[in-house]
Amino acid sequence: MKIIRLFSVLFASILLLSCWELQSPFYQTMSTPKQPDPESAPFMNPDSTQKHDTATFGAGCFWCVEAIFQQIKGVDTAISGYMGGRIAQPTYKEVCSGLTGHVEVVQIVFDPSIVSFEQLLEVFWKTHDPTSPNRQGADEGTQYRSVVFYHSNEQKETAEKIKAALNASKIYDAQVITGVEAASVFYQAEDYHQNYFRENGEQPYCRAVVQPKVEKFEKLFKGLIR
């Protein structure tokens, strides 16, 4: 009987202890996840979640294209590089040979709440000759072909629609032959190609070729300049 009474006392003690633990603030803190306090939550800058988009254009020498798109409000970066070829990590010399199939392009990261893809396309088509196959001025070769590399079906549809409208309007003496192709791997060009016009504006090519295109852009698109 003593043994039975002893077990009864021990069992009752365990139950009392368990109930005390369940009511204990320490136990509740450990077992229940703490809910965040809205007042003490860190402030998140809305800009940090702002959706940005990417556009990639080939319109002749990327020094010209980069110099234009760098000036546009809402464009975060305009990087010169290569796209659409058959080998990985091409060099400028290899691309210039015309054997790799790459195009000199500028890849643009932009804020669509400030500048739209349609506006970028308008700048693209009005600042180069989209009717000239594999050539822009004296620059000749497949690496200089006119092309929009789209990053979404929406970009594809927009580019094709505007291209068709340009041809229907007969604004050019010849057909717009700009390619509309799916974006592939983008290879950033060598460092000395980046910001080329800004850093080498006095060079003969820049003064003879890049500067007139930049001036044309500045005349046509004053409202887009940052």
Could you walk me through the main structural features you see in this protein, from its secondary elements to its overall organization?
With 226 residues, the protein is an alpha+beta fold. The protein has two domains: 2-31; 50-224, Peptide methionine sulphoxide reductase MsrA (Peptide Methionine Sulfoxide Reductase, Chain A), CATH 3.30.1060.10. The protein is built from eight helices and eight strands. The strands form two sheets. The protein has a six-stranded mixed β-sheet, covered by helices on one side. A two-stranded antiparallel sheet has the order 4-5. Helix 3 packs parallel to helix 8 (204-220). The longest helix has 22 residues, at 2-23. The radius of gyration is 31 Å and the shape is globular. The chain starts with a helix and ends in a 6-residue tail after the last helix.
